[in-house]
Design brief:
This protein has about 190 residues and is mainly α. It is built from 7 helices and no strands. The protein is globular.
Length: about 190
């Protein structure tokens, strides 16, 4: 566990696989819970705002990115998945036009990035981006609550896939790989 017990990864580890599982962070479960609550709150609010600002061009762009993501999942291309998923979310959140939410989400993603990497290394890779269809449906139907629910489902699915990935001994040392092709917007 020592290799993944840093920043957000350790906090998520404490929350998902039990107190003490990530003691190298020195972060309490309560602090981890506060951090874990920040991600769905900020991303959910940004998705709702993006839905209110949605254009057909945004739906087209997100659909194209999601198609690329599904191709990367089919090929089990971890870096392709990470890059396309990040572009999907940051394109969505950029459409919120929020000067407050986007920097908060960027900061949380910087902490969460290594954990997302691990979630894709799960032996059965249960994360399939299916929640993105719910997000797109919310945008198409102009229903901010549906877009928000899709984002929250995406976060929960990722969290559930972390349990086997973080428990796996094969994940040791994987976080030292460079991830130069990740996207944080314009």
């Amino acid at each position: 566990m020592a290799a993944v017990c840093c920043g957000w990864s350790g906090r998520i580890g404490e929350l998902l696989i039990g107190a003490g599982a990530a003691t190298a962070t020195g972060v309490s479960v309560a602090a981890g819970a506060a951090d874990a609550a920040a991600l769905p709150a900020t991303e959910g609010a940004a998705a709702e705002a993006a839905c209110r600002n949605c254009t057909p061009a945004l739906i087209k762009e997100l659909t194209e990115i999601n198609t690329e993501l599904l191709g990367a999942i089919a090929k089990r291309s971890v870096l392709g998945c990470l890059s396309a998923n990040q572009r999907f979310h940051f394109t969505l959140y950029g459409a919120s036009a929020s000067e407050v939410l986007l920097p908060l989400i960027e900061s949380l993603w910087l902490q969460f990035g290594p954990t997302m990497y691990l979630s894709l290394l799960s032996p059965d890779m249960p994360w399939d981006a299916s929640a993105h269809f719910e997000i797109l449906e919310g945008l198409r139907t102009a229903k901010p609550a549906v877009a928000r629910r899709g984002v929250l489902n995406d976060i929960r699915t990722t969290g559930r896939s972390l349990i086997p990935a973080m428990a796996s001994h094969t994940s040791i040392g994987l976080l030292s790989s460079p991830l130069d092709d990740l996207y944080f917007g314009d």
